[in-house]
Amino acid sequence: MTSWIFLARKVENKDWSLMMKFFPFILPLFCLMGLCSPTSASPSGPLPQEFASWTEMEKSAQRVAGQQMLQQIRTAIETGEKNILIPNAHYRFAENSGGKYPAHIIFPKDMDGVTVDFQGSTLWFETHASGMVLPGSINCTIRNVFLDWDPLPFMQGTVVAMQPDADTFDVKIDPGYEHPVSQLKEESWRGRGVVFDPETRELKEGQRGCEVTFSWAKRNADGSYRLKFHGFHGIPFSQSGIQVGDPYVMLKRMQRAVRMEGTRNCTLDGVTLYAAPFIGFVHSAGSAPTFRNCGILRRPDTNRLMAGNADGINCDNLEKGPLIEGCRMETIGDDFVNIHGHLGRVIWQEEDGAIITTRLNRRSSVSEPVEVEFLERTTMRSLGKRKATWEALDWKVDASRSLADIKHRWHSGDAAGLQSGKTVPASRLKLDEPLKIDGDIVVICESFSGSGAVIRGNHFKGSLARGLRLHSPHVVIENNTISTTLGQGISLTSQAAFWGEGPYVYDAVVRNNTLERIGLGGSEPVAALQVQATDKYQDIRLPRNIRIENNSFAQIPGAAIILRGVDDVVVQDNTINGFALRQPTPGAPANDAAGAAIVLDSIRGLALKNNTITGGGPGALKEPILQINNP
């Protein structure tokens, strides 16, 4: 019917009567052409029909074409060609590199100034490995390409029965999703579980974070499978938000779709993912990547529920942060964007000017002095800054010879491996001036933490976690639409105690963004936008110079804006239409933000003006702007 509507719109008003005169003769012709039908069949499988009907012979030909295409790229680079055009086609890859981080395509190392234009081709990957890897490229561009997995890196079905007393429930797998990648064919595996609304097929409001154990052996007589529920933070199955009839996805975090390692000034332009075994786009070390007009989308003409298994774009330990513009993401298993450095932990002090830490910011050695800062882990109180160089070494961790409290585990970066008896990659820092270290200390290096990110003009919808999660300074977030997140929409809040990611955010501008239906998870409502660096924010004041202006917030279950322990803040010209919409949970812990639209706690240097607030929900405060302990 789409083609008929398009044609009709091209008819001038004066010709409309003529078109209608001949309509009885034209309509049968359109129907023969397949341009109209009484009903449109909804997609019923993981692949469009034209792809689902491919024979093994056709797939084999695509694999051969894939190898020929890789040889074309290698030959072109060897001969010095800078603009490589790939014929538009379907290319398939069944083999991967193996090893700890397997990949299907690894571009030649240290490419310089090369553009590879796939001209709308689709790359099909058949294992859990990364789709493509760019190691050490400089000033390179990859453009105009679609990436997809066949078989898929997730499974989906429908909840058909529940056994709450046993923390189990039954899922019948949808047709076409019974044969995922081999990592999901193993007998008994544990991964994330995601609930969807049966009417909208979007992420279901009120669900709680969880993992599930899937066993192929636990198949019921009706063909469904029995899953074991593991709620985060001990949440029982009764609070999961799962009901019979809910669409459900089971996924495992495996390899990245696109991996950029140490690249400098490289661009992904028009790169679209229809699936991702883990993070969609990941960039580690290096500097200044650009993600332009990229997508992580549920493939059209299918009934897929997920587009990516985890973060959309994750950038860590960059010298300069990314430019992300004109991108679209929908329905992914974690944050849309996460930009951070990895904090180090001080292991030992050999002398006042020589300190052993976990490896800093994925850099084995740094010969030119850069500034580092030392902070108490438990409070994030600064102990001072020094210029430092460092060299790499391996260090065997001994609990009796460790300043770090190794009982306190992190979950990301090299410091996550800090365990007694384990040998870890470490750094020996040489300081320009002595500094006495005593106790459990964190060290950060802002120069390698992704400072200066710009995120603008993007459209993000459907995150199992947060929208934008930033830990680094000098950021601009503007003209984005963010909707349907279970967690915060924009978080400028470091979480050093758990993930070991930071350093912290200052000199940030958040303007002209639209945030809708933010904080839909089952826990107590979170803020649509939050800035806070530490739980001890009253005394340890890290964020500063934050501008939040001309943003629009709508349908927010909790507060629109929460700022705690921030210096020099501008909050102006924002519009909030609908806040505190969720009914307070009976028996929930006291929450000083409950019922407020804007919470300003322990703020110094506040400019607050021209904010429009309407549509308070149940329990909304009479005065929607709550100011606590502000000087």
Written overview of the protein:
The protein is mostly beta strands and 631 residues long. It has five helices and 46 strands. The protein has a 21-stranded parallel beta sheet that branches. Strands 3, 5, 13, 15, 18, 21, 30, 33, 34, 37, 40, 43 and 46 form a 13-stranded mixed beta sheet that branches. A six-stranded antiparallel barrel has the order 7-8-11-10-9-12. Strand 22 and strand 23 form a beta hairpin. The radius of gyration is 26 Å and the shape is globular. The model is unreliable at 1-40 (pLDDT under 50).
Instruction: Give the overall pLDDT as a whole number.
Output: 91
Radius of gyration: 26 Å
What proportion of the residues form beta strands (DSSP E)?
35-45%
**Global outline:** globular
How many beta-strand elements?
46
Number of helices: 5
Please summarize the sheet with the most strands: 21 strands, parallel
Give the helix level as a range of percent.
under 10%
The low-pLDDT segments are 1-40
User: What class, by secondary structure content?
Assistant: mainly beta
Calculate the terminal CA-CA distance, rounded to whole Å: 63 Å
Assembly level: single chain
Quick overview:
The chain has 631 residues and is mostly beta strands. The protein contains five helices and 46 strands.
What keyword list fits this structure?
globular; disordered N terminus; 631 residues; single chain; 8% helix
